[in-house]
UniProtKB/TrEMBL annotation:
Pfam families reported in the protein's UniProt record: FAA_hydrolase
Record keywords: Hydrolase, Metal-binding
Span of domain Fumarylacetoacetase-like C-terminal: 74-287
Keyword Hydrolase: yes
Keyword Repressor assigned: no
Protein name, per record: Fumarylacetoacetate hydrolase family protein
UniProt GO molecular function: hydrolase activity
Gene source species: Aquibium pacificus
Amino acid sequence: MKVATFTIAGERRVGVVDPDARIVTPFSLSAEQASRGIVALIERNGTGTPRTLSPIPLDAVTLEAPIPLPARNIFCVGKNYFEHAHEFALSGFDSSASGGAVPKHPIIFSKVPESVVPTGADVVIDPQVSVAIDYEAELAVIIGKGGRGIARENALDHVWGYTIVNDVTARDLQGRYSQWLIGKSQDTFCPMGPWAVTRDEFDLERASVRCFVNGEMRQNAKVSMLIFDIPTIIATISQGITLKPGDIIATGTPVGVGIGFDPPKYLRSGDFMRVEIDGIGALENRVSERTA
């Protein structure tokens, strides 16, 4: 099931998407429930989905991020594809490079919730803050059942579903500070969407992640090529940290980011980014420049 958070006539709603028929069928949720996006469904704890209302044309709604304002920082995994680990280690911006190009354990950082924007929204760059903005196409995991000390073999039981994240990054800020949060958490630097897909409908072995900038394919890799797979990531984070329903984990980006080119292909105002993941859809965002 594909589930979207959207607004229509000033109201936020949550519904089942049929991309082929170009319709979304809202669930019967209160305004307070729908305000949290798909978390309203996740927290039902397997008690079933609410009844549905009449379908609405997709063109008549405005899509929001599946979880418009996550309750906590988005967990992210760095250097989690072999080729990307090498391209980043050679970039000069990798503060972890002294430990080797390929990490021995998952590198975990975070992005603040307020960096989240939906498909169709602009990624706004501020040239007074950074002049080295990059894209990173990623599969994101949405936790359905919380837990602490989750065993790797049981980890996928804790997954509600998946969505797409573009982990937009200010490379110069990432290189300047030992921690990555500032360079990763700039306003609008976490496009998410266009909707989420439940775990039962997503094929981790066959799905590929692709990124296009102005129609040029920059990234293309299978999710199965992750250095640390999703069960390992969940087990690692939950060692001492209690994961909660609605938590989001961005799993890492493949080779082909802007910093990997010579010269680097940084984002500029007017650029158009499209991130595709098989079985989910496409996340599209244009880059604009802050004017004030």
